[in-house]
Amino acid sequence: MNISACNRIEGVISDMKKGKATTNVRLRTDLGELMLVMTSSAVEELKLQPGERATALFREVDVMLMKGEAPISTSNRIPGRVLGIKKGNVTAEIPLDAGSGRRIVAVVSRTSAEEMALAVGDEVTACVREGDLLLAKQGTVGLRNRLAGTITGLRPGTVTTELTLDTGSGELYALLARSTADDMKLGEGDRVSALVRERDVLVLSTS
Prior knowledge:
Layout: E1 2-3, E2 7-18, E3 22-29, E4 32-39, H1 40-46, E5 53-58, E6 77-82, E7 86-87, E8 91-99, E9 102-109, H2 110-115, E10 123-127, E11 136-137, E12 140-141, E13 145-156, E14 160-166, E15 171-177, H3 178-183, E16 191-196, E17 204-205
Antiparallel strand pairs: 1-17, 2-3, 2-5, 3-4, 6-8, 6-10, 7-8, 8-9, 11-12, 13-14, 13-16, 14-15
């Protein structure tokens, strides 16, 4: 089985911290310790346990580079001030005041937020990769991959919510900020559309 993600790092699961919607998995590798945030349902399906060998897969376009203390390799940098920090077991939601009434929300791992010693009032910079931006024009989003379905399950955590979507030809799973799910008033039985960027599609070869 081949997955279209050329970056692969093998290691051993050293620790797992499970939340309602997401689980923080630490992988000990020869290159150092990696930290993954996964949906808890995926962890349960894979039956992951500490001490097991696993492989971290990630796409080339998901790599951000730093050189010393230089900025990360993206031209999209949005300065802002931390308005609050909402911590879950695994993730943390951090809203930023970007000025002129604009608000940017970031969801990062709780460990990262704590290691950065983030606090309300801190001045930070939100970095967004060029490929992570979507364009909308007159209410239309520039995405061709749209899968309509019905919400059959919600798994809310403190910071994130996992959705299960029945598309009629299989199930899809989505992870979004809980505040977004709450604002949208999502519930079981709702008809929604899953939008998937072209660059976010991984191709699986079974031959």
